[in-house]
């Protein structure tokens, strides 16, 4: 059952980061026809290899945290520190963009002030971050199967111009 937890976290991370949502796949791949299909296969293969190699390094070196992983990859402490700083900046900027995007989405859809919407997500993230990895795994265990079911239902739904669904 642990493998499902890992799979759900990977799917949740890719979708949550916006790398694998339908619009991005359509924009970056399907719009190029056969070449785009080759791009999907190529990028999926690269992601798969990176994930496999990462898990192989973690298992082989009995790594328990991010710092140990980075130390295993980069032996030079100065380069290690610079890399760690760059990664942290990217994570922080991505977090702020996610918070702002959620606030803007709630403002657009529910006419809720974007600061309130952003604050809601920030508080939820704070609670989640306090649980370490266990909370992230639990959230993905719950949400990803629901997301998969919704995607399957939408895929099997024939929508009319009135946005009602008739299942096939």
Structure description:
The chain is mainly alpha-helical. The protein has helices at residues 2-16, 22-28, 34-60, 66-73, 77-110, 114-130, 132-155; strands at 157-159, 165-167. β1 and β2 (165-167) form a beta hairpin. The two termini are 32 Å apart.
Architecture blueprint of SSEs:
Blueprint: H1 2-16, H2 22-28, H3 34-60, H4 66-73, H5 77-110, H6 114-130, H7 132-155, E1 157-159, E2 165-167
Helix pairs in contact: 1-7, 5-6
pLDDT averaged over residues? 83
Structural class: mainly alpha
Strand content: under 5%
Percent helix range:
over 70%
The coarse overall form would be: globular
Spatial strand order of the main sheet = 1-2
Point out poorly predicted stretches.
Answer: none
Tell me the series of helices and strands, N- to C-terminal.
HHHHHHHEE
The profile of the biggest β sheet is: 2 strands, antiparallel
**DSSP helix count?**
7
Oligomeric form of this entry? single chain
Distance between the termini: 32 Å
Overall radius of gyration: 19 Å
